[in-house]
Amino acid sequence: MAKRSTIETTATLSAVQFAAEGHSLSCRIDVLNHDIVARLAIHGLTQKIKDAAAIPVNPETGRSASMEEKFAAMRAVVTALQAGEWSRRGEGDGTSGGGLLLSALLRFYADSRTEKQVLARYKALSDKEPAALRANPKISAIIAEIKAERAAKAADGATGSDDLLDSF
Length: 168
What we know:
The chain is mainly alpha-helical and about 170 residues long. It has one domain. It is about 55% helix and about 10% strand. It has seven helices and three strands, in the order E-E-E-H-H-H-H-H-H-H. The chain has helices at about 35-50, 65-80, 95-110, 115-125, 130-135, 135-155, 160-165, and strands at about 10, 15-20, 25-30. It has a three-stranded antiparallel beta sheet, with no helix packed on it. Strand 2 (about 15-20) and strand 3 (about 25-30) form a beta hairpin. Helix 1 (about 35-50) crosses helix 2 (about 65-80) and helix 3 crosses helix 6 (about 135-155). The longest helix has 21 residues, at about 135-155.
């Protein structure tokens, strides 16, 4: 089996550095041509906004997210960026990873905390804390349950899918 390598990335306002298995590479931003920096900014901005549209399914219907839902998610990113926020937590319709984590936390604390308490703490999470919570076995189990429930609901909504399977 091939060994899997990971390239570690460190980014600051002055440089981006990459390192793996004794190799390293650095790209200083201050030595780049202004046109290149502008193109990099446009590329990053485009990716950030388009990434918000990567909503696989509407959890309520089990169907692909509509163009309206995708543009609403993109609009939320633009609004956040223009307000000086890189990301917003606690908003949305539960189709994003954050919505899934928030749903799991609400379920986990259903008997001991109010929704308002959980939401307030969720919004105060640092950038690294959501990943730590997702890795916690208690929360990851709830996330798996929610995903299974959504998949079952989507399968129930797939009218004629058994007939379609039988047609093969």
